[in-house]
């Protein structure tokens, strides 16, 4: 299929052309005297081509000496159109207008070139899908041979997998929280599995989790988004970076984006600073109740310091999104929910997938 216009020329490969539309009405004098009254339309033939076809249908009527002609017309259109018009290898589509139509029986379906191209591509894809479902296919994961309608086809790459394998594959990534890796299972393909396939294969609860994870990971990649330390909802940071300020509209908490404490106008207050300020606070404790509150506050701050120390030993910040990550078991290759991999020991960022393990081989 060649597309030709005033400003651009492009080539598209199409396996299935949309059918011609032949509309017929039979006059009372058919077939003894008059031929059927007809119109012929197409989304990919020019007015000149349609006019030539109409004239040839007239010729067939005359050659058959006023016999029943409808089935002869249909058979000829089904088997001889491309060869008759000399379009065996390619069809050239060019812009035209209604003035180009010489025969009133010839009806181009649209004068909009873009609309014609889109409708042809849609029909071609539909027919490819129909043909796929008619035949048995081999699953690219389990290698079982099943009818085509038991498979999911990934639109762009065309790889296909049976329903059971696709269900297990999607559930695996959704359960692990690695929805950014929910791509075509083929090792050399990076096409994303379309949302309509994910929705079709997953149970409702799993699909809801997939939606939440996709939203979270999308927000994590946005530099102006942080997470509220109180209600864990996404919050847009203030445009002025030096303020380190974010205000949660859900729980109305204004906090520092550096330390997650109540906003303190740039100055970062650590737990050690709080303890020092408390112990150096002037004045004496006047009664037992005040003494008890003082001791409780001091123990609380000390527990906060100890907790921070333990967290520092057990947790690391993702080098990309700064989210806190705890290592429970396994090797030192860590992968954050944002997709970034890094070394637990030295903090170096690593390549995704199996390539990241070369860091440990070379160390």
UniProtKB/TrEMBL annotation:
Q: Which SUPFAM superfamilies match?
A: RING/U-box, UBC-like
- According to its UniProt record, this protein's enzyme class is transferase
Keywords for this entry?
Metal-binding, Repeat, Transferase, Ubl conjugation pathway, Zinc, Zinc-finger
Biological process GO annotation list? protein ubiquitination
Q: Where is the RING-type domain?
A: 135-363, 139-185
Q: What is its EC number?
A: 2.3.2.31
Q: Which reaction does it catalyse?
A: [E2 ubiquitin-conjugating enzyme]-S-ubiquitinyl-L-cysteine + [acceptor protein]-L-lysine = [E2 ubiquitin-conjugating enzyme]-L-cysteine + [acceptor protein]-N(6)-ubiquitinyl-L-lysine
In terms of CDD domains, this protein maps to:
BRcat_RBR_RNF14 (cd20341), RWD_RNF14 (cd23820)
**Any one GO MF annotation of this record:** ubiquitin protein ligase activity
Under the heading PROSITE patterns, the entry gives:
RWD (PS50908), TRIAD (PS51873), ZF_RING_1 (PS00518), ZF_RING_2 (PS50089)
Q: Which residues are in the RWD domain?
A: 1-84
Q: What is this protein called?
A: RBR-type E3 ubiquitin transferase
Q: Which organism is it from?
A: Lottia gigantea
């Amino acid at each position: 299929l060649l597309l030709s216009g005033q400003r651009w020329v492009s080539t598209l490969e199409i396996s299935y052309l949309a059918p011609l539309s032949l509309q017929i009405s039979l006059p009372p004098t058919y077939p003894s005297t008059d031929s059927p009254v007809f119109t012929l339309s197409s989304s990919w033939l020019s007015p000149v081509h349609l006019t030539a076809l109409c004239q040839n249908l007239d010729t067939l009527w005359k050659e058959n000496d006023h016999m029943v002609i409808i089935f002869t017309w249909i058979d000829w259109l089904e088997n001889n159109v491309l060869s008759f018009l000399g379009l065996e290898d390619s069809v050239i589509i060019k812009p035209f207008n209604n003035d180009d139509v010489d025969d009133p029986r010839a009806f181009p379906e649209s004068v909009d070139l873009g609309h014609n191209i889109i409708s042809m591509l849609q029909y071609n894809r539909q027919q490819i899908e129909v043909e796929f479902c008619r035949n048995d296919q081999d699953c690219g994961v389990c290698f079982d041979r099943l009818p085509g309608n038991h498979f999911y086809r990934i639109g762009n790459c065309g790889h296909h997998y049976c329903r059971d394998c696709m269900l297990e594959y999607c559930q695996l990534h959704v359960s692990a929280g690695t929805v950014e890796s929910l791509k075509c299972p083929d090792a050399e393909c990076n096409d994303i599995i379309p949302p309509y396939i994910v929705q079709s294969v997953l149970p409702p609860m799993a699909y809801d989790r997939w939606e939440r994870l996709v939203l979270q990971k999308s927000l994590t990649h946005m530099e102006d988004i942080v997470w509220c330390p109180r209600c864990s909802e996404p919050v847009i940071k203030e445009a002025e970076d030096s303020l380190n300020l974010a205000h949660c509209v859900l729980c109305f908490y204004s906090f520092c984006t550096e330390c997650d404490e109540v906003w303190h106008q740039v100055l970062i207050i650590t737990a050690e600073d709080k303890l020092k300020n408390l112990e150096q606070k002037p004045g004496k404790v006047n009664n037992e109740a005040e003494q008890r509150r003082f001791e409780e506050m001091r123990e609380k701050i000390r527990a906060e310091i100890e907790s921070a120390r333990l967290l520092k030993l057990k947790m690391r910040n993702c080098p990309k999104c700064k989210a806190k990550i705890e290592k429970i078991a396994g090797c030192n290759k860590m992968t954050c929910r944002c997709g970034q991999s890094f070394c637990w020991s030295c903090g170096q960022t690593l390549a995704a997938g199996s390539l990241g393990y070369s860091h440990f081989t070379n160390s």
